[in-house]
Design brief:
Elements: E1 9-12, H1 14-23, E2 35-41, E3 45-58, E4 68-82, E5 85-90, E6 94-100, E7 102-104, E8 113-115, E9 122-127, H2 136-152, H3 154-161, E10 168-171, E11 181-186, H4 187-197, E12 203-210, E13 215-229, E14 236-243, E15 248-251, E16 256-259, E17 265-276, E18 292-298, E19 311-316, H5 324-341, E20 350-354, E21 368-376, E22 391-398, H6 414-418, E23 422-427, H7 428-443, E24 451-454, E25 459-462, E26 466-472, E27 478-483, E28 488-493, E29 496-509, E30 512-530, E31 536-545, E32 550-556, H8 557-580, H9 586-599, E33 600-603, E34 606-611, H10 613-623, H11 631-646, H12 655-663, E35 666-667, H13 669-686, H14 694-705, H15 716-723, E36 726-727, E37 733-741, E38 744-752
Parallel strand pairs: 26-35
Antiparallel strand pairs: 1-10, 2-3, 3-4, 4-5, 4-6, 6-9, 7-8, 11-22, 11-23, 12-13, 13-14, 13-15, 14-17, 15-16, 17-18, 17-19, 18-20, 20-36, 21-22, 23-38, 24-25, 25-28, 26-27, 28-29, 29-30, 30-31, 30-32, 32-34, 33-34, 37-38
Protein name: Toxin complex component ORF-X2
Pfam families: Clostridium_P47, Orfx2_N
Family: Belongs to the TULIP P47 family.
């Protein structure tokens, strides 16, 4: 499946940003307002906060688009008057943490940022008000005043944050942010399970007393549902808790009851954590089930920054409870109830088997050794939550790999890319190591020790000169063809499998040394349909050439002047042989030579023919006049390629001996190219069975050439090993429908629920 166009992903690095801030701290120490003042003025209640800011500190606690500020108060006072009873509170040396959603300011001509104007996109995370436990109403009023002040002064936050270099990186391709694998589903699917299992708190009851103001309140009611929603990224997960009927808040002091509205809700933010399971409840059909089972549940204690397990992001109770005082009382009660009772939210979001042993050792590399999670919120064009596209992800490392910069960042475009309800991704360097290396080994052009990974693990290149082939040249001699260090490349480039050789050289005729640049690209495609045998097949992963190969053949100007016609004949034979598998004769060959002659250009002391797509099209059209198809040649090349792979099964032979035997076998250059192409195809198809299995590669070469796709291994066993150690709580099974290279190796599909 070809990669579709994606929006650019912006990844924020708050750790690096904060490190920069610390380095510039003395310069920017006063880049914030000195004073603050905010008040509430109602008939029965007045509240006012005034004071002096000590500093605003951007922390490294932020995730995604949600940075967190810690704002320190040098000195200040909160004054609250309720029914003519006044209390004053000292704020000296306290602080408040504010989380706000940041956006790129599209109205600015330079790279500037601004904080979102959405009402619930700025909220308090935590604070150190010294009277919090004793005077909870005052504490929540103060929190409300500060949040209101920041919302009214977003411009000051904008000015402050734009004084720093915010470290971001962008990606047009998909990413797993350093994790080996990622298994994702939509918020909608998560919510279906939550609603089906009903493992959220069904009711609430809480008594609240504030001695400062002489308040006594009781609250009781029910929850209709808890549903995951947008408005957070990374490790922070937001839920909408819908308050049910017959829910109320009672002022015992004033003997008055306030009913919650039918659309009352709480928007809460929690974090999740993996816990060891008390019993083993899942099985991996592809493993020995000897792994350690962990389950992802809500974190019930404070995090490493001492933030509470539950943050109340937003709420609505009723019009009767809209006054700041009553709202603060209700908010205080819900905050305390939530943090005391969050353990009643018993929903399990996923299960993992860690350190599981695969039944087939060739698939052991797919078994996770470390588990993580993350979310990514997606909104539609109207800025409304898009729960079908919002991503809930469980990530892992395999083979005890270490993510050097672990984070909970999730690519919000994963579900959009597959246009399905679930996806499984493998990091591209890991895909290259485990799949593309099979193709390299199958090519038999060198030992593993002669190659290394480059381009951040996406490309395999030779680290020393290799003998590519023994080539029958136009003088009838068998001569060696070499590729110098770093000039052979096989890997993933621009989401395609690319085989590339630069300056492959050999004596193409007596006294004429030719140099060839060769490049062939493949799409890795998941095929289904009816094959040449008339049999149905499905989900066969196979490389398909997406363009004709391109070549650049170069000779010295001296050789050109002496042997122009011979060189043109050599190049014509090589080019048409690679394109169609046969070399026409007579008038047709003369026409082909004319095309090649026109392709030659002089550059310095070199004459070169660049044989790109336009030349290839012209030569193909001419070759068709011969009536030949090359079918017999293709069958012979695929059989010879399979026979050479059979050498791996010969008892007692070493890899180096195999390489030497293949490299020393005389053949035409274009025959070598065709055989290598079949070996690449066989090696990639063979990856579906887990590794370098010669018999699988031999069968893949032969059946792929004949388009007997029903006889090729499907990707089903591979997929089963990918997801066997991960269970969603509804026990659904991943059914693959698409596969593509798009920054990662991404498989999309449906989740079939257990009946």
């Amino acid at each position: 499946m070809s990669a579709g166009k994606l929006d650019t992903l912006t990844i924020y690095d708050w750790n690096q940003t904060v490190n920069d801030v610390k380095n510039q701290g003395s310069i920017l120490a006063r880049n914030f307002p000195s004073f603050f003042s905010q008040e509430i003025n109602e008939q029965t209640m007045k509240a006012k906060v005034t004071g002096i800011w000590l500093k605003w500190e951007l922390t490294n606690e932020g995730t995604g688009q949600y940075p967190i500020y810690k704002c320190y108060i040098e000195d200040g006072t909160l004054e609250v008057d309720v029914e003519n009873k006044t209390n004053k509170y000292d704020l000296k040396n306290s602080w408040i943490k504010i989380c706000a959603k940041i956006e790129i300011d599209k109205s600015s001509s330079t790279e500037m940022y601004k904080f979102s104007e959405k009402e619930d996109a700025l909220y308090s995370i935590h604070h150190s008000f010294p009277f919090d436990k004793e005077n909870r109403v005052a504490s929540n009023l103060l929190e409300h005043l500060f949040v209101s002040w920041f919302k009214e002064h977003r411009n000051l936050l904008n000015n402050h944050v734009n004084n720093y270099r915010i470290h971001v990186r962008t990606s047009n391709d998909l990413t797993l942010a350093g994790w080996d694998t990622g298994y994702v589903t939509s918020f909608s699917n998560v919510n279906k399970t939550i609603l089906e299992k009903e493992l959220y708190p069904k009711d609430f009851k809480y008594e609240f007393e504030d001695l400062d103001f002489g308040f006594l309140f009781n609250m009781k009611g029910t929850f209709d549902s808890w549903e995951i929603t947008t408005g957070a990224d990374g490790q922070n997960v937001n839920f909408i808790c819908k308050i049910g009927q017959n829910s109320s808040l009672t002022n015992e002091t004033g003997n008055k009851t306030y009913d919650f509205s039918s659309d009352a809700f709480l928007k809460v933010q929690v974090r999740l954590e993996y816990f060891n399971s008390t019993e083993k409840t899942i099985e991996d059909p592809t493993g020995l089930n000897d792994g350690n089972q962990v389950e992802l549940r809500v974190k019930t204690d404070r995090d490493q920054n001492q933030n509470p397990p539950v943050v109340l992001v937003d709420s609505y109770y009723s019009e009767d409870l809209a006054s700041p005082l009553l709202n603060s009382i209700a908010t205080s009660m819900f905050k305390e109830w939530l943090n005391e009772n969050i353990d009643k939210f018993e929903n399990i979001f996923s299960y993992f088997l860690l350190q599981e042993t695969a039944k087939n050792e060739d698939f052991q590399w797919l078994k996770p050794t470390t588990a993580y999670y993350g979310v990514a919120s997606v909104e539609d064009e109207n800025k409304k939550p898009d729960l079908d596209k919002s991503v809930f992800s469980v990530m892992s490392m395999v083979e005890n790999h270490v993510n050097k910069f672990p984070q909970h960042t999730v690519d919000a475009r994963l579900l959009h890319a597959v246009n399905n309800e679930s996806a499984f991704g493998i990091d591209m360097p890991l895909f290259v190591e485990k799949w593309v290396e099979n193709a390299l080994v199958a090519m038999q052009i060198g030992t593993p020790e002669q190659f290394e990974k480059t381009d951040n693990g996406l490309v395999i290149s030779n680290k020393e000169r290799i003998k590519f082939a023994t080539i029958e040249n136009d003088s009838g001699n068998d001569v060696p063809g070499y590729v110098d260090e770093g000039k052979f490349r096989l890997g993933i480039i621009n989401n395609q499998l690319v085989l590339e050789m630069e300056d492959l050289y050999w004596e193409q005729a007596r006294g004429i040394m030719g140099h060839v640049n060769y490049k062939q690209s493949f799409d890795i495609t998941l095929k289904s349909g009816v094959d040449e045998l008339g049999k149905e097949y499905s989900n066969v992963l196979i490389p398909i050439e997406n363009t004709d190969p391109t070549m650049l053949m170069t000779f010295t100007i001296e050789d050109w002047k002496k042997n122009e016609n011979l060189i043109i004949e050599i190049v014509t034979g090589v080019a048409i042989g690679i394109l169609v598998g046969f070399i026409p004769v007579g008038k047709i060959f003369t026409k082909l030579k004319d095309v090649v002659r026109k392709a030659f250009r002089q550059s310095g002391n070199r004459m070169s023919a660049e044989l790109g797509s336009s030349v290839a099209i012209a030569m193909r059209e001419i070759a068709q006049e011969s009536g030949e198809t090359g079918a017999a040649f293709f069958r012979r090349m695929s059989q010879e390629a399979a026979d050479e792979v059979t050498l791996f099964t010969r008892p007692g032979i070493t890899t180096q001996q195999i390489i030497n035997e293949v490299a020393n076998k005389p053949e035409s250059f274009f025959s070598k190219i065709w055989k290598n192409k079949y070996k690449v195809i066989g090696g990639v198809v063979g990856g579906a069975v887990g590794g370098m299995v010669p018999t699988a590669i031999i069968g893949a070469i032969q059946n792929a050439q004949q388009e007997h796709y029903s006889l090729l291994p499907t990707i089903h066993e591979f997929v089963a090993n990918c997801v066997g150690t991960v269970n969603w709580p509804d026990n659904s099974e991943f059914e693959i429908e698409t596969a593509q290279l798009q920054g990662i190796y991404l498989m999309g599909g449906k989740l079939n629920k257990e009946k």
